[in-house]
Amino acid sequence: MSDGKILWNAQLTKGDEFNIGCAIPSKANCPKDAGPDFDIGAPPILVTLGGAKRILIVGQKSGVVYGLDPDDKGREIWKTRIGKGGYLGGVEFGGAADQKTTYMTLSDWSPTDPKSGGGVFALDIATGKKIWAATPVAPACAAVAGCSAAQPGPATLIPGVVFAGSMDGHMRGYDAATGAIVWDVDTTGIYDTVNGVPAHGGSLNYAGAVVAGGIVYVMSGYTTNTGMAGNVVLAFSVDGK
Predict the structure, then answer these.
(1) How far apart are CA 12 and CA 31, in angstroms?
(2) pLDDT digit string (tens) for 177-189?
(3) Eight-state DSSP code of residue 135
């Protein structure tokens, strides 16, 4: 931290040259031997376990979550697969953690199957073992363009509850101990806004919920190539209203 010198680096997937040109018909500027696009787009999480042992938790678009040793040049301690991964698959934008458990959302978005993908996973930080996995809810809006069960947005953790959004527009609260859904709000409606601007909700993607002062704040709407459009910020009380 004193001089910015690189102490170590860990390449979790080799041969993964890829850019957005690989996803368009002309393949303009796409590398000759393009990889599967298994970026690490999610911020890593540093946790200190009992006895001052530190673990760096890394979620990857490959659908694999890693526990690395930050004090031993990024040595792999464990890895756990939670999905199949892909261009818009695996862990996209982030997870959450307390001192014992990390909570990861799964995208695995499919351009042809709106019921594909999604899920929330609780992993033991020390071992990577799955504690529970919450099966994605089948989207009621499956016939609407951009609707999907995928959950690319990051998880948000408060004591006892994990909040995770979905491309179907739902923000759900999961019991942190069991994965049971205890709170579910469909954000895709039409709203009378405080500033008088017409607004409606849509898919929940890159931004997780923010929780402060007993209020859950949610940004609803996302349409970069995928998702249902929307333009609203919502605030919910503890009873989901």
Answers:
(1) 19
(2) 999 999 999 999 9
(3) P
Residues in the chain: 241
Neighbour count for residue 49 (Cβ, 10 Å) = 12
Whole-angstrom Cα distance, residue 33 to residue 4? Answer: 33
3-state helix, strand, coil in the chain (%, to 5): 5, 35, 65
Which tokens is 192 given? 């009378």
The three-state secondary structure class of 124 is: strand
Cβ-based neighbours of 225, under 8 Å, separated by 6 or more: none
Residues of the chain with pLDDT under 70: 225, 239-241
Model pLDDT for residues 18-75, shown as the tens digit of each residue: 988 888 889 989 998 888 999 999 999 999 998 789 999 999 999 999 999 999 999 9
Domain spans of the chain? Answer: 20-236
For residue 239, the model assigns a pLDDT of 67
Give me the sign of the Cα torsion angle 103, 126, 61, 83: negative
The correct answer on CATH 2.40.128.630 for the domain covering 20-236 is yes
Contact assessment for residue 90 and residue 64, using Cβ atoms and an 8 Å cutoff: yes
